[in-house]
Each structure stands twice: as C-alpha cells, then as structure tokens.
Amino acid sequence: MAAALALGIGLLNCFLISMFQMWGTLWNVVTRPLLLLSGVMLMVDSLPPQWRDVLLWNPLVHVVAETRTGFYHGYDPSYVSPVYVFGVSLVTGTVGLLFLWRFHRYILEN
Asked: Is 2 inside any structural domain?
C-alpha cells in the first residue's frame, strides 16, 4: 500500500512541480505536520471519535496502522481500508500520468 501511494502521489507531484515552481515549497509546508497527522507518533485508536473520523481521510493512517499489525501481535485496527488507499493511489497516479502525457512537450521545453 505504501509503494502504491508513493507512486501515485509522486507522479502527481512530478507534474505539479514541473509546471508550478511554487508547488515544491507549498508541498514542503503542507507535509510538515504529516508525521503527527499520520498516526506515526500517536495512536489513532486512542483519539476521540470526532478526531479519528477526520484523520481517517489521510491514507497514510491506514498504511501506518497496517504496518503496526505486522509488528504487534493482537493489534487489529478495524478502520484500515486497503481499497481506500489503493483507490487514492490509482486516482492520483492516473491524473499525474494523464497530465504528464498531455504536457510533456511543454515541460521539456521549459
């Protein structure tokens, strides 16, 4: 799931950074708090339901929780949805590839 998500987001970022110089800086600022919001430093299970529902929109929460199941015996997060993660990966990867295919000549010229 992590590799598919990285590929999808990476393809979209490849296009966005090539077309818009400011996107690289904006992406760095937006992803700074991602370590805290992805469930790496804190357990999403221990949060109140209203916060958990908001954080479950982040596909990295699902990847981190699924990774924890491999390390901790008995840890069973019921909220993990591989379909959601692969869906986000597929959509972002497809959009990134379509835009790269459409604008590749413009990107190479600049």
From this structure: no
- Residue 15 domain flag: no
pLDDT tens-digit readout, 40-65: 888 888 889 999 999 999 999 999 99
The domain total for the chain is: 1
Interacting residues of 2 by C-beta distance below 8 A, sequence separation 6+: 63, 67
Q: Which residues contact 36 (CB under 8 A, 6 or more apart)?
A: 42
Structure tokens at 31: 């992803």
Q: What is the pTM of this model?
A: 0.89
In a domain, 92, yes or no: yes
Distance CA 102, CA 62 (A): 32
